[in-house]
Amino acid sequence: MSTFLKDFPTIRAFAQALASRKFSAHEATTALLQEIKTNQALNAFVDVQPELSLAQARNADNQISHGTGALLVGTPLAHKDIFVTEGWRTTAGSKMLADYVSPFNATVINALYEAGTVSLGKVSCDEFAMGSGNEHAATGPVLNPWDPEVVPGGSSGGSAAAVAAGLVLGATGTDTGGSVRQPAALCGVCGIKPTYGVASRFGMIAYASSLDQAGVLATNAEDLAWLLDAISGFDEHDATSIQVCQGVANAPGRILNDYQKHVDAYTGNKPLAGLRIGVPKEYFGDGLDNHVAAAIEAAIAQFEAMGATRADISLPNTAYAIPAYYVIAPAEASSNLARYDAVRYGHRTAQYTDLQDMTARSRSEGFGDEVRKRIMIGTYVLSHGYYDAYYLQAQRVRRLIAQGFQSALTHECDVILGPVTPTVAPAIGSVTKDATAEWLGDIYTLSVNLAGLPGMSIPCGFAPGHRGQPLPVGLQVIGNYFDEGRMLAIAHAYQQVTDWHTRRPGGAA
Ligand code: GLN
Known about the structure:
- By secondary structure, the chain is an alpha/beta fold.
- 57% of the residues are buried.
- 36% of the residues lie in helices and 12% in strands.
- Residues 129-132, 155, 174-179, 207, 329, 442 line the site of glutamine (GLN).
């Protein structure tokens, strides 16, 4: 585990140390690059370019010495290998893009550079962000810093592992069906996926465009707010980017780019008095591990102790989230991935007879099993004769799921709390041998993307893993559209009275 960030485990602590010249950004970057090397066995980083990171660090030091540094100046981050980046390779975890270097940066990456952050490199993800364990990356599985025998979660597994191991203070991720929240939960860190449209998708390699959304991972809610402030905002390069965000009465930080300012809105003896928490009964049914359930219930009780009131609610269409998502996401993926034809983009096979043979061979060689499976499903559900039965039907279910959330969040509660995953991190190799077992673990996260809502995961305890070893449990916080400010503020309030978020693998607090 990293030792450098032990004494400066949050962006605030790190920024203060930089400002008081305890170390320079260059010294910090040098130390962390060394720690990344020492922790190579985690397999989290897939491209490290020390000279690029150190140049950014020197630039940060310059700004600090001139007093012109932005909020996040010098903050060491890692970026999911699905965001295109100048200088560092972008492979989307695929052989298809093995040596690809983008000529431009994704908007989210540029925004974080403008905020002064230093990139320590690209981190592993499931191929084209398809997966729940980071076992489908062309570079092999990423190990969970809590236990090298278990997965870190996916698809942003490299991001979560890098933060949990203390190699960076934060990381970017993307969440199409849970890929920020789920690895954050399984690695014991925090992660937020904002409302669809809040962060730009420009330069994020597309998986399922109507569901894909950028997010961030860090060690506490306040840090998430700093990072989300940086990445959110309108982008004319993304047709689904949101231009104007309407404030909603009586809640802190509803205005885009203002999360950090409002993060400690809830203070006092009963900071959450008046807050209504919805607890969906469908999130506590069959399949939820008893120990995970106990950790979630304890967290909800803590929120109640802080003044919140509990409403037991029902989201009756939850069971249909998996079938609906695994029709819609593959359908969009089959269309998005058509561009890798070995002519416009992607790996080209060495030997072929004609154009069709070249494309077929190149795609067979370039894509891994999970991606090929989804392209087949997607093509099937969009084909003539099956479109109405599968794709259209899934879109109807999607609408019903969104309506279910709206009804609960309008009439019964302000936020929804529940588990992120049914179990703690499973052993590497244990779920991928069954074609759909991995998909079942997405039950509590997919609906949030189908509805376009913001979702967050924060550490709330531990439960026994496959050998009885304690592994982190994540609490999911789901809010209404544009309610990220309130979600972050209540998470921050929770983190003022609990210390789950400060626990680190190896026992160091
Ligand atoms: N596990 C889900 C899938 O495989 C979600 C992935 C994601 O959010 N990128 O599609």
